[in-house]
Amino acid sequence: MEDYKFLFKVVLIGNAGVGKTCLVRRFTQGLFPPGQGATIGVDFMIKTVEIDGEKIKLQIWDTAGQERFRSITQSYYRSAHALILVYDISSQPTFDCLPDWLREIEQYASCKVLRVLVGNKTDREDRELPTHVGEEFAHRHNMYFIETSAKEADNVEKLFIEIAKELTQLVRSGHFDKDSKVGDLSPQDVSNVTLPPTREPRSEFACCSRWISSSTT
Amino acid sequence: MSCCGCCSAFRPRYKRLVDNIFPANPEDGLVKSNMDKLMWYAMTSPDKLDRIGDYLAHRLYRDINRRKTGYVIISMDALDQLLVSCHANNLNLFVESFLQMVQKLLESTEPKLQLRATQSFEKFANIREDTPSYHRRYDFLVSKFSSMCYASEDEEVMRKQLRTAGIKGLQGVVRKTDWDNLGENIWLPTHMEKIVPSLLYNMQGNKAYVHGTTQISDTQDNHQNEGEKEPHELAEMCLRELVSRATYGKIHNVIKPLLIHLDYEGLWVNNSFAVQVFKIVMYSIQAQYSITVIELLMAHLNEKSSEPAQIRTGIADVLSKVIPIAAGECIGPSVIEIINSLLEHIRSSVVGGVSGKESSAEKMYQETLIHALGEYANHLPDYQKIDSMVFILNKVPGSDRVDDGGSQRPEAEVKLQHLLLKSLLKVGTKYTTVQYSTTFAQSFLVRLMRLSVSSDAEVRLTVQQILHTLIDRHQNIEKLAKPTLEVSRLGLTMSKPVRQDVNFWKKSGNEIMLSLQENCEFSNNRLVNIEAIYATLMLLMAEIRSDDVMVDILRVLFHVQGVAQNGTVSGPQGVQLQALVASVMVVISHLVPTLKDHVAAVIKKRSDEAPHLLPEIMASYESGLPCRDLPEDLLFDHSKVLDLLANTNLDEKRLNTSMASMMRRHSTTQHTSSATDINSISVEVDSACSSPGLPRRTLEEEITFESLKKVLTESPEQRRKAEEERRKQITEAFMTESFEALVAKIQAKFSVQ
Ligand SMILES: Nc1nc2c(ncn2[C@@H]2O[C@H](COP(=O)(O)OP(=O)(O)OP(=O)(O)O)[C@@H](O)[C@H]2O)c(=O)[nH]1
Ligand SMILES: [Mg+2]
């Protein structure tokens, strides 16, 4: 039987070309795909990690950044436990779009969702956005923050592990309701964490905590 | 499978049976004879079914992790067979194991396993379980199948297979969950927002929809084997099924994601796909809900009020194309609601657009809305068309007050008035008048006549056009575009004289004539206005076959001639009025032959000395051409006409009464038609058999003492019959006979006497 303690749904969003797919593939397959094409619709990957000796299954939904796919990608926000909002540290426009993305999150995601801001491509020489700018933005909007490089495998593992840890902790503290009615297909006797289907006033759980903001050192 | 050998003797029987179905070499496939044993066991001991499922799942997980794909497939084969052949109550628990295995396979990155999982799921979806499962959730399946619908594998065959599998998987979920409606609610937005765009995505690229080559109809072609179907065909089938299953509260959840998808994909501007999709929806949806779709489209238009006009036009165009499909289902208040909503859109477009220079795109949008309104009205039953016209007219600014404020009105109001009248005209063209009293309810006519004397020439023109389409029952209007002297070339079809028309004229004739007379007096009339007035006068003459109409028109003509003659209206308008009078006079003289000589004399004189006073009417004239204070012999002579009419059936005294007094007379005198009232009977008989130009004597001969006595002594029923018979005989000749034939007949009769 499949043995895992929790199942979490993690959804990646952000402008086209910021490296969402590369991050996922680096994490799930341990590689940096050469010539990664734009994602069409939504891609799906699964990865089981261990936190404190317990298996945590991560369902990762990698959405297309292109505007035209917004109708399908938005529908995946709803049931997410964690949302990873990615921008490209070498591209100011991808950063400038962040407020739009936040608006989308507000509109479609559960208020209890864990939100993580990721500045990707730290390996690039032509950085346009200093770390502190991303950091401040995350701080202002109650998000976790981390900078990564899918190419150099910097902080990628950490990103997902921290999310798994955080979510596990949130579940244990009762942040997510263990409501079997809104559950998923999952093995019996395995806790399946679910989210309330409707929005409630924002809770303050994620207030400005940060993990790490250092670039490659 | 290391230690299994030694301890197999102590293993439970079901585990041994399961183990035995796996061959040593996975290539060999399921060990069939052992599979039969397992099936037999499962069917005879159904309580063990869930353990078998559990154990198979256990093996499958292990095989997947070890990447033993061959064994994985064998497990799935075994599961399928067990699922299909076991109809036990215990199936429910077994199903849980089964679905977990399906999920496990779908989680794999191996396309082959994903396809295999979908196959099994499809089989499962077609099984109707005895007991609904309250706790079963399909969230993952919907998410994953939707994601597969977007498969973008480089390899075309695999891409197509995955997409097909995704669509079939979604179809399976929909069927399964809709059947046992106590389980997962598939209609929740969270599911529909995934399912609907995934289906559309697979349809939209196909040229069948883009160029509209496939005929969308209300039947779907099921003959073709599903296996051979293209993804877009499968997706369409699935969409149809989805929509056809949707009941009232659920439609919103289906249509909303559809609209949003079209938004994001930018499919409104070149909207052929959007049109096709909505046709599919309208033909698939349970008829009583089709109106909801229209309402949702309207609401979407509301939401897009700040989007570029092209997008709004695209949506409005879709509306205009699908609205007829729903119109048949409209009843009562929803009709007015839809019309109101369309008018509201027109209004907000006008109000929003006036400030800046209105773009041609915005105009196009307004036209599209009016078109949609027309399309809608076209499919309404006639009585609802009338309701609609009344409703629209009541919305027209200015229809509720006498003074329209002249040029001081705000620009938006003027614009709105024009557009709403155009809308009214549009609906009017879709309506077929049978009875004028039905078409022109008193309050409707009053408002319309009020607008007909607006100081705005364009408004006056549109009102005349509305009158044309509502009065014209014999397609005469095209023949009346230009005033002419060549009456015989017109080829008008005349109505037959009927009591209802005559009664209508008694009731409302003055209202109409008064407005026409006033219409002639505006100094801002353009040629088109004059031409429209001409057409209205002619239509009245052709449609309402009553002596009173003839005399009333004569009266208006003399009034108009006076207006031009004394210079109240001057310039080109003065000339135009003189020519208008001539062109209508000529027609009257054909119908009332006693006037013929006089009219001919005036026309002759004019053509010799002042041809500009005759048609063809021009937009402008050389300045200085006389149109006022004309010599007597260039004018139609009122007293002469009065004399000439004395010898006819026509009531010449009517010619002298002023409009105002006529009005008064008509508002006070009510003809009550009781069976014993000789007066009223004779009036009715009179109106039934009288036809213009028939000398009065003929009638007098017909109403003899005998006939009157008969009328009085016969039972009402007999009398009614006899009367009807008579009327039939008399009017037979006039039944939709051509104008010329009629004129010829009248002249023949006239010359005989
Ligand atoms: N230098 C560098 N390039 C990266 C990194 N991550 C991604 N890229 C490149 O960025 C481009 C886009 O990466 P994707 O992962 O496809 O981007 P995406 O966010 O998934 O884009 P969409 O699927 O269109 O939304 C590719 O050419 C990658 O090679 C990184 O960490 N460093
Ligand atoms: Mg991608």
Automatic annotation (TrEMBL), chain A:
Membrane-topology descriptor: Lipid-anchor
Cofactor(s), by name: Mg(2+)
Compartments where located: Cytoplasmic vesicle, Autophagosome membrane; Golgi apparatus, cis-Golgi network; Golgi apparatus, trans-Golgi network membrane; Lysosome
Domain of life, source organism: Eukaryota
UniProt EC number: 3.6.5.2
Record's catalysed reaction(s): GTP + H2O = GDP + phosphate + H(+)
Major localization class: membrane
Coiled coil: none
GO cellular component, one term: autophagosome membrane
Gene3D superfamilies (UniProt xref): P-loop containing nucleotide triphosphate hydrolases
Region (Disordered): 177-201
Alphabetized UniProt keyword annotations: Cytoplasm, Cytoplasmic vesicle, Golgi apparatus, GTP-binding, Hydrolase, Lipoprotein, Lysosome, Magnesium, Membrane, Metal-binding, Methylation, Nucleotide-binding, Prenylation
GO molecular function: G protein activity; GTP binding; metal ion binding
Alphabetized InterPro entries for the sequence: P-loop_NTPase, Rab, Small_GTP-bd, Small_GTPase
PANTHER family attached to this UniProt entry: RAS-RELATED PROTEIN RAB
Function: The small GTPases Rab are key regulators of intracellular membrane trafficking, from the formation of transport vesicles to their fusion with membranes. Rabs cycle between an inactive GDP-bound form and an active GTP-bound form that is able to recruit to membranes different sets of downstream effectors directly responsible for vesicle formation, movement, tethering and fusion. RAB30 is required for maintaining the structural integrity of the Golgi apparatus, possibly by mediating interactions with cytoplasmic scaffolding proteins.
Family assignment from sequence similarity: Belongs to the small GTPase superfamily. Rab family.
Protein name as it appears in the record: Ras-related protein Rab-30
Automatic annotation (TrEMBL), chain B:
Transmembrane portions of the chain: none
Protein family membership: Belongs to the EFR3 family.
Record PANTHER family: PROTEIN EFR3 HOMOLOG CMP44E
Protein known as: EFR3-like protein cmp44E
Lineage: Eukaryota, Metazoa, Ecdysozoa, Arthropoda, Crustacea
SUPFAM superfamilies in the cross-refs: ARM repeat
Pfam families: EFR3_ARM
Domain of life of the native organism: Eukaryota
Signal sequence annotation: none
A GO CC annotation given for this chain: plasma membrane
Provenance organism: Penaeus vannamei
GO biological process: protein localization to plasma membrane
